[in-house]
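U., I forgot to send this yesterday:
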Amino acid sequence: MPIFGAWQFSDLIVSGPDPFGSNASANSDAVGATSFTIEADAAVQMIDLTDDDANLEDADGSQELTLPTTFDGIAWGAGAAGDVEIEYSYVIRPTGSSDPADNITIFVLEFEGDVHGIASSERLFAGQTYDIVAIDSNDPVIPYADLAVCFARGTRIATKQGPVAVEDLRPGMKVQTADNGYRELIWTGRWRMTGRDENAPIRVAKGALGNDRAFEVSAQHRLLVRSRAGVLGGRELLIPAKGLLDLPGIARALRPRIEWLHLLFEAHEIVFADGAAVESLLPGPMALRGVGPQEAARLRALMAENPLLTQPARPILPPGQARRHAKQAGGMRQFLLR
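Result:
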């Protein structure tokens, strides 16, 4: 049963020609002329569907709500009474950015014939304003599978008992963190998927980030680095692995199949994977989409109990911004201390 995060139209403040006024097609007048802001106090809504294939798309009657759901102020029934499709899609970008690397695709969601919200290819943030820069498609298809923050099997994590393979870690074990000594794991998760194209893992060769052996993480998994040039000089930053592909020793590694493993603590932590400083799971829509419905429900309950779970341990620098700073510094190697 696919699970993904969505924002209701009632969460959005739109400025410019209405990009969501049609139930059938995108509005070309909105391109370059419209922005929208997600209200600061808005919260992403989780959509649980049943489907007979791996894609969310238009004109697919098998995409039905698993449970009764209230979305955009309307109570929707489950099963045949809760048909969900995507009608069209736009390319957006955070206001102020001109870098295509910051592009995000949003998919306009239709509930029982009328559009009521958006899903996205990357995480969107409450309080952020986004510009519509292009129409992506009037007949979009997006796989439910998405990237999450996770480790590949065999990665050794520093614990109180010494290095332990990530697949052998269990809740209750004490893991070494950069900020808070040894912290207790409260949840671990697993996820299997293909390891090709955009889903391919990122391999960090021995020594590339001070690590004592090679390891692999998902492309969205953020690694801790320190900048040494430009306006961010000296700051510790979390950058997704895919944003570090310009560094020597960091590259995609195609795999037919891969099993990802997640580590969750009572707060977002910096842990050590084969000697490199990396993040633990930071729960959010992307992470929730990468686990099964029971695990997603467990994560949502933990997030409700402890707001610290969603607070990042270090400033997060998206890949596009990392590349801009690297360009200003003369290259990624000049931008970062490793």
